[in-house]
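// run 5 | inverse folding | seed 20
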């Protein structure tokens, strides 16, 4: 039966495919694809985990005191029976052999399938056996955890849209449905494995949303109970424009969305022709369109869409999902060097590690004792709290600067003391490299403006830095006191709030007045609905995900900044800027 789930649209377009459910577990379960030659070893891992638990339960039975309650012995029998149930074992083998899921993912997926069957049973006693099954699965998972396998993404396979309903094989697009996805999960799934994403939680600028946009695939977040309502292998449509997920669509609905999907592909093809066109407005203003990247290999898609540099290299992705083992200087240097050389002489702005809030290093570092991690030890505060780690990163960036034009960007500064401490450590990193006889290059130094306190003390920042970069995601969050990852307040997250626009406009104006560079690197930069406004406010440098560059370039080519300037001031002074913008 067709039904729909509503959420927040965060990445435009239409995706059609079969649902892949990432089942939640109380344990931290890795989800990744394996290669065909790993199938038997993964099945062996599950078998070994199951056998270990069987041995453990049988030993408990043998050692059980004679006066132990009868119910306890019966419970152990139930657990042993569930462990050896054909539905569990054959199902797990199916997900490993046919879908190339890793062992833990296959086990949690099959648990989800069977648990739904328990939910539908009329007999209350049988329904309650779901809890026993969960305990059994958790025991097996605990035995298996720690045997990590390499993450390998399967090749993306496409079928003609008209074949999708007729073809029930595995060679169809897949869409990911999850309660939530960590940044590390998103990186694992980044190689175009999935045609779209749906998550129960998140907002427009949650990290899942940002990475989905960078992958240029449709995504809906904040869909509440989607991961419970949607079943494994359901056909679903993700409408990334309206924020709607349609489950088990009828042929008529499927045909309509198939048409919209093809229209979107034609629009992307048309925009691709602008790749080599210079971003110059109608009145001759040259606009700098830069790319935001997460990994060194992201430079290739940036060049493909005509980016004139990297405005934001989020270095924290080199640090994530490593279970406490941080990258050393050489590993970081090689990564930054690959990015610099990958941009073929174009400038690369590397932001120092920005972890915390919605980007914990990994589950082991996610400290729930911090009641509000967005206001805690994150970004530059975390770096300054660990000078040895920070100096390692600074030395690696300085060494990479010998291979091309590198700018260094510091996130979340707010205090003069933080600025001076940061600059002192940069100088110290240079001295360390001099003492080691290491070659390094010059750096332009920049600061993120993402805290209202920073936006209100611009003269202090411009005294020390060559350029500023406005991180609108956090600036909006901190100005409006909105947790940008919390879907319950996502409707209050407003880039057009008069206070936000005033802080952005004043930062641009002050930098222009002092002849210092300024860019916007947050989500506002890639939102085509705001391109004309930012141009009218005097912005000449935008940094965004590569997937957004061509659409923004089209807006730039149609714009006349001379005419936009007075209109932008009208928007800025309005009580309801959104209503003026819509005229």
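// decoded
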């Amino acid at each position: 039966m067709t039904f729909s789930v509503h959420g927040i649209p965060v990445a435009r377009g239409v995706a059609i495919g079969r649902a892949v459910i990432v089942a939640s577990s109380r344990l931290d379960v890795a989800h990744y694809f394996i290669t065909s030659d790993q199938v038997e070893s993964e099945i062996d891992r599950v078998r070994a985990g199951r056998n270990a638990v069987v041995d453990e339960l049988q030993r408990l039975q043998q050692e059980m005191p004679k006066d132990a309650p009868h119910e306890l012995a019966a419970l152990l029998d139930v657990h042993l029976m569930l462990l050896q149930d054909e539905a569990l074992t054959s199902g797990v083998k199916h997900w490993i052999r046919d879908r190339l899921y890793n062992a833990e993912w296959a086990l949690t997926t099959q648990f989800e399938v069977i648990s739904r069957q328990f939910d539908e049973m009329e007999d209350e006693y049988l329904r309650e056996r779901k809890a026993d099954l969960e305990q059994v699965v958790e025991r097996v998972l605990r035995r298996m955890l720690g045997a990590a396998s390499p993450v390998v993404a399967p090749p993306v396979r496409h079928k003609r849209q008209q074949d999708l309903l007729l073809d029930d094989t595995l060679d169809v697009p897949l869409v990911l449905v999850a309660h939530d996805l960590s940044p590390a999960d998103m990186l694992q799934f980044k190689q175009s494995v999935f045609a779209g994403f749906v998550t129960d939680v998140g907002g427009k600028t949650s990290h899942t949303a940002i990475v989905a946009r960078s992958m240029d695939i449709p995504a809906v977040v904040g869909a509440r109970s989607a991961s419970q309502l949607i079943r494994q292998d359901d056909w679903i449509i993700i409408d990334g424009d309206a924020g709607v997920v349609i489950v088990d669509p009828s042929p008529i609905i499927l045909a309509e969305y198939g048409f919209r999907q093809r229209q979107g592909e034609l629009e992307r093809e048309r925009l691709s022709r602008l790749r080599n066109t210079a971003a110059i407005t109608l009145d001759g203003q040259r606009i700098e369109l830069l790319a935001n990247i997460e990994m060194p290999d992201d430079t290739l898609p940036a060049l493909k869409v005509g980016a004139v540099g990297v405005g934001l290299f989020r270095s924290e992705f080199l640090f994530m999902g490593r279970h406490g083992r941080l990258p050393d200087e050489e590993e970081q240097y090689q990564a930054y060097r690959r990015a610099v050389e990958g941009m073929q002489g174009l400038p690369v702005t590397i932001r120092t590690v920005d972890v915390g809030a919605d980007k914990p290093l990994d589950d082991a570092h996610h400290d729930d004792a911090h009641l509000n991690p967005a206001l805690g030890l994150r970004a530059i505060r975390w770096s300054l709290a660990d000078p040895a780690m920070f100096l390692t990163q600074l030395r690696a960036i300085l060494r990479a600067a010998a291979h091309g034009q590198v700018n260094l960007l510091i996130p979340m500064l707010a205090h003069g003391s933080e600025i001076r401490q940061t600059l002192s450590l940069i100088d110290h990193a240079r001295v360390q490299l001099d003492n080691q006889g290491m070659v390094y290059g010059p750096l332009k130094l920049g600061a993120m403006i993402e805290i209202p306190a920073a936006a209100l003390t611009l003269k202090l920042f411009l005294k020390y830095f060559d350029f500023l970069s406005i991180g609108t995601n956090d600036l909006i969050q901190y100005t409006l006191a909105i947790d940008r990852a919390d879907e319950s307040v996502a409707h209050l997250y407003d880039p057009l709030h008069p206070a936000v626009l005033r802080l952005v406009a004043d930062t641009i104006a002050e930098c222009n007045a002092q002849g210092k560079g300024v860019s916007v690197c947050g989500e506002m930069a890639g939102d085509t609905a705001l391109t004309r406004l930012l141009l009218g406010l005097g912005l000449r440098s935008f940094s965004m995900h590569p997937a957004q560059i061509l659409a923004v370039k089209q807006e730039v080519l149609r714009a006349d900044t001379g005419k936009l300037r007075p209109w932008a001031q009208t928007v800025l002074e309005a009580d309801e800027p959104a209503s003026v913008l819509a005229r």
